[in-house]
Amino acid sequence: QVQLVESGGGLVQAGGSLRLSCAASRSIFSINFMGWYRQAPGKQRELVARIHTLGRTNYADSVKGRFTISRDNPKNTVYLQMNSLKPEDTAVYYCNADYNGRIDWGQGTQVTVSS
């Protein structure tokens, strides 16, 4: 099992930026996919972005061109750089680790974008 701790959330005005961090309790080098998901009130949790250990990335259409996921394997950390934020990006953002048939989740960090 890997423990994940997200940080970097907060309140920002529309058009602003935030960078989320996800710190893992152990090496993430062997973890196939690290991802960011989000859940808005009354909605299902959805994929925002994920990154393979070799660097291949996938993004939700709604965030393409605005968000960038990256991973720093030596620091056991995954980042989500969020630019040009919109009110519809408001949600709890969760980090996850997908490896060997197992998925672990962090506790989430709140992102609120005001109009």
Helices and strands in order, then pairings?
Layout: E1 4-7, E2 10-13, E3 18-24, E4 33-39, E5 46-52, E6 57-59, E7 67-72, E8 77-82, E9 91-99, E10 102-105, E11 109-114
Parallel strand pairs: 2-11
Antiparallel strand pairs: 1-3, 3-8, 4-5, 4-9, 5-6, 7-8, 9-10, 9-11
Polypeptide structure, described:
The chain is mainly β and 115 residues long. Helix content is 0%, strand content 55%. The strands form two sheets. Strands 2, 4, 5, 6, 9, 10 and 11 form a seven-stranded mixed beta sheet that branches. Strands 1-3-8-7 form a four-stranded antiparallel beta sheet, with no helix packed on it. The radius of gyration is 13 Å and the shape is globular. The termini are far apart. The mean pLDDT is 96.
Continuous helix count:
0
Largest sheet: number of strands, sense, barrel closure? 7 strands, mixed
User: Hey, roughly how much beta strand do the residues contain?
Assistant: over 45%
Structural class: mainly beta
Question: How widely separated are the two ends?
Answer: 39 Å
| Number of distinct beta strands | 11
Mean pLDDT: 96
Helix content: under 10%
Question: Shape from CA axes?
Answer: globular
Give the H and E element order: EEEEEEEEEEE
Oligomer: single chain
Radius of gyration: 13 Å
Q: Could you name the ranges where pLDDT drops below 50 across 5 or more consecutive residues? A: none
